[in-house]
Structures are given as C-alpha cells and as structure tokens.
Design brief:
Length: 263
C-alpha cells in the first residue's frame, strides 16, 4: 500500500489518506495502540510493531490492543464480546465472542493467546519464549500463565474453572475443567503437571524440578484429587483408579484421592 501511495499524485494521496482515517493509523514511535467498539482499526510502525482491533461483527463490542518492541497485538470482539491484548517483543492474540471476555498479555519473545466464547479467558506469557494459551466457553474460566520460557494451557468450559501456571525453560502445565469442576496445574523447573476435572470436583497437580511429573484427574461429583512430585519424581492420581507414586532423587511423590493415598 505504501508503494502505491508514493506513486500517486499529491491530490490522489490526500484523497487516499482521507479514506483511511478511522480505519488505519500510522505512527513513528515504537508504541502502537488501538481501541474500537464497532469498526476495524490497525496501527503499525515500519519496524513491524503492530496493533490490530476488530469489532465490526455483531457490534457493539470492545477490542483494545497495544504493542511495542516489534510486538504484534491483535484483538477481536464479536457479538458482544470483549478482547484486550498487549504484546512487547512477541505476539498476543485475544478474541471474545458471545459476551465472552478475553485478555492476552505478552512480554519477551513468546506468545499469549486467549479465546473466550461466553466465558472468561486470560493468558499471560512473561519473559523469554514463554507460551500461554487460555480458552473458555459457556460461563467457564481459563487462566494460563507462563514465565521465563515456560508453557501453559488452560481450558474452562460449562462453568468449569481451569488454572495453569508454569515457570522456567521446559516447564509445562495444563489444566482442563468442565461442568463446574476446578482444575489447577503448576509446573516449575522443567517439570510437567496436568490436571483434569470433568465434573463438579477438584483436581490439583504440582510438579517441581527436572523430569518431575504430576497428574490429577477427577470425574466424580464432589471428589478431590491432588498430586505432587519433586526432583524428578512421578505422582499420578484419579478418583477412578489406584494412585501411583514413584519418588526419585530424594524427592516427593504424593497423591491424595478417593481411590487411596500414597507418598
């Protein structure tokens, strides 16, 4: 588009600029932002920093985005949805639809993505190449936070609440909750933690240090399952099968569940 503008006559350039007002903004700084309720707006810098806000479908909606340090932030609000994204050095994407609310925040070189379809999704990727992905639907809540190169994913559906937190290169946390269940997963120091709640129950998994693995899952109403592993240990628990605890390197492997405890 810029090349074509340079080749236009002065009068033609003025006309083109007038048409673009309200839908696109150019700026010289490395901080771009946009906000809209019923139109599509893009603000970008020649170094690649860009903020995009889309809210033209099913307005009124709310879409806000801000970007810096060659970051790319995009927000989409549809059918009464609300989206807010912030990127510094990487990518942030937020989409809220059907009255859903999505927030994506990123710093470093990684990616934060939040998608809410009638629920609330929050994704934060802070530092290094961290990656956070949060989704929510039908009144659910998904919160994913990744720091210092970690990865996290959280999905809350049908009133479920899922929270995943990771910190450190190689750490991976994932949580899934539905049908009013609550799932929490936390991984630090290149460990892996996963929690699943498929009914009105609670699942909590915590893993710390290289190679540690913790998994907790529940499918029965009112049950509670927790698993903890450290120093390369392994702990797996559910409300439908016997627990597994494998301590390593003097670490902890602990499970508490309706099917028994270990560790």
């Amino acid at each position: 588009m810029q090349t074509r503008i340079l080749r236009m006559s002065a009068a033609g350039a003025v006309v083109a600029l007038a048409i673009a007002v309200g839908t696109m903004a150019f700026a010289a700084s490395d901080h771009e932002s946009c906000s809209t309720k019923s139109t599509d707006v893009t603000s970008f810098n020649n170094d690649g920093t860009q903020a995009t806000c889309d809210a033209a479908t099913g307005a009124p909606n709310s879409a806000k985005a801000k970007a810096s340090n060659v970051g790319d932030a995009q927000s989409i609000g549809e059918d009464g949805g609300k989206a807010d994204s912030s990127a510094s050095g990487g990518n942030a994407f937020a989409e809220g639809e059907n009255a859903g609310s999505a927030t994506a925040e990123q710093s470093g070189t990684g990616t934060a993505q939040a998608t809410a379809n009638g629920g609330k999704a929050t994704a934060k990727a802070m530092g290094g190449s961290s990656s956070a992905d949060a989704t929510a639907s039908a009144g659910g809540k998904g919160t994913a936070t990744a720091r210092n190169g970690g990865g996290s994913s959280a999905e809350g559906d049908n009133g479920g609440k899922a929270t995943a937190t990771s910190s450190g290169d190689g750490s991976d946390a994932s949580a899934f909750a539905e049908n009013s269940g609550k799932a929490k997963a936390k991984a630090t120091g290149a460990a892996e933690a996963g929690a699943i709640a498929e009914a009105s129950c609670k699942a909590n998994a915590t893993a710390n240090a290289d190679g540690s693995e913790a998994g907790a899952a529940c499918t029965q109403h009112g049950s509670s399952v927790s698993a903890e592993a450290t120093k390369g240990s392994r702990a797996l628990g559910s409300d439908t099968s016997a627990p597994v605890c494998t301590p390593m390197n003097g670490g902890i492997a602990k499970v508490k569940s309706p099917m028994g405890n270990c560790g």
